[in-house]
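Hi everyone, sorry if this is the wrong subforum. Our group has a chain we'd like a structural model of before ordering constructs, and none of us has done structure prediction before. Sequence below.
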Amino acid sequence: MARDGEQLAFPGWMDSPLLGKVKNERTLMVWSLFSLSKDKVVSLPPYDDGTVKIKVTGSAEHGVATCYDKDVLIYLASLLQDKLNRGETPSPTLVFTANDWARVVGVRAAGTAYDRLLGALMRLKTTTVLTNIETGGEGEDSAFSWLSDYKVRYRRDSRTGEKVMHGIKVTLCDWVYRAVLRDRRMLTYDPAYFSLSPLERRLYEIARAHCGKQRGFKMGIEKLRLRAGVRSELKDFKRDLVKLSKCKNPLPGYGLSVIDPRKRIPHKDAPKPTGRTPLKAHMVFFYSTDRLAHMPTYDQTPDLSDADPFAGLNNDLGTEAMA
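Answer:
Right subforum, don't worry. Here is the predicted structure as tokens:
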């Protein structure tokens, strides 16, 4: 770990490269905490389902951290898990290279990638989150930012005069640090995650977080829209889901279907429903595709519309976190 006044570029002081798999903490996967738009958004719609409350705001200059900025947090959480797997007790302060971050998230290590990283660090520092979600058995009674602090060391290229990054030093907020170290609900991401669209990223995270031993679940379409953080009208969200469900591989390792429950007639003599099904009555069925022969049916899966998001899941994540 680098000490103040020392060059961050010295390899012996780096927490990178990431040697293990890319992972994230379930809490950061279940809830909508980042903007799905690349355009500047200064706040997200407040979320309140009667149990969980979330309010996310950004600065007028930089806006709210985006789902692409979240790549930095995913990378940092993965570095923490790497250290835990080696039997270390990691510090919330981590030092890494821009090249290693670019390698992991699948972007070319060039000027535009560095600009993206710098912008992400700024938004992660200036975004504030107010929530009653607890991590590690503790909560926050005040708003927090994703990063408590960050510092980028660089040198000037003698030929071009451009900045060349030596290393990045960041300090994670206590909320995220506790989630990784104490809750131990880390899940591995498919490498294809980083090539997905914003909506696909959120649907993948929700599917990944909820498909444990149960291998499938269903959720009301409006609840899913709120969990995903989608701002479009419900009819447009349904259209996007239907379009995605018709793709050969809609999400890495998972499939989905939009279900009209009124058309699921319990027996042949039951009267057929009349009229149009209300949009909010539709359900979205998620299932794992890694073993299709054992894929659960819609009726066999739990409805998580109003349930504890972690209820009934495989909480024995020791093997998963170490993988």
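For your construct planning: The chain has two domains: 11-188, 191-315. Residues 11-188 form one domain.
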